[in-house]
Amino acid sequence: MNSRLVLLLLVSLSLCNASIRDQSIAVKGKLICGSAPAANVRVKLWDEDGGPDPDDLLDQGYTDTQGMFNLKGGTAELTTIDPIFKVYHDCNDSVKPGQRKVRFKLPPSYITEGKVPKKTFDIGVINLETIFENEDRELLTSRRRRHKNWFEDSREDQLVNDFADIMDGL
């Protein structure tokens, strides 16, 4: 009896593992603020999960001096991933606390099977002067995030960054 139960458990686990699959996505584009490139803007690629499964940070980075970015990442999921591209910026933001946060849902047709994306979604040129519907604010920012090239990394900044990443996933 015990051996049958163990065998049933092993078969169930292997079937569960077989249905979890690696999926990946990539996004690229250019951010501007008015007519100028939006340089050093924080960008993140997420898999937003509903229910008890926490969101997965797939990739993150900053725009270059021309406002260009290229993010790619993947995760293993039982269901199809729900890729979200997030931008954190201060374009036309005067002295308000925190940063403007904008999110874009990416087309599922750009999700590929495997750990490396086979195609890249080109989101185009986005002018961050635009006031986006459902725009949000991120109130926790560190000096490193806002001016990553001007300050040395510190333990305090890293803790703030880690906490903000957790809050982004909620």
TrEMBL record:
<feature type="signal peptide">
    <location>
        <begin position="1"/>
        <end position="18"/>
    </location>
</feature>
<dbReference type="GO" id="GO:0005576">
    <property type="term" value="C:extracellular region"/>
</dbReference>
<dbReference type="InterPro" id="IPR038479">
    <property type="entry name" value="Transthyretin-like_sf"/>
</dbReference>
<dbReference type="GO" id="GO:0009986">
    <property type="term" value="C:cell surface"/>
</dbReference>
<comment type="similarity">
    <text>Belongs to the nematode transthyretin-like family.</text>
</comment>
<protein>
    <submittedName>
        <fullName>Transthyretin-like protein 46</fullName>
    </submittedName>
</protein>
<keyword id="KW-0964">Secreted</keyword>
<dbReference type="InterPro" id="IPR001534">
    <property type="entry name" value="Transthyretin-like"/>
</dbReference>
<dbReference type="Pfam" id="PF01060">
    <property type="entry name" value="TTR-52"/>
</dbReference>
<keyword id="KW-0732">Signal</keyword>
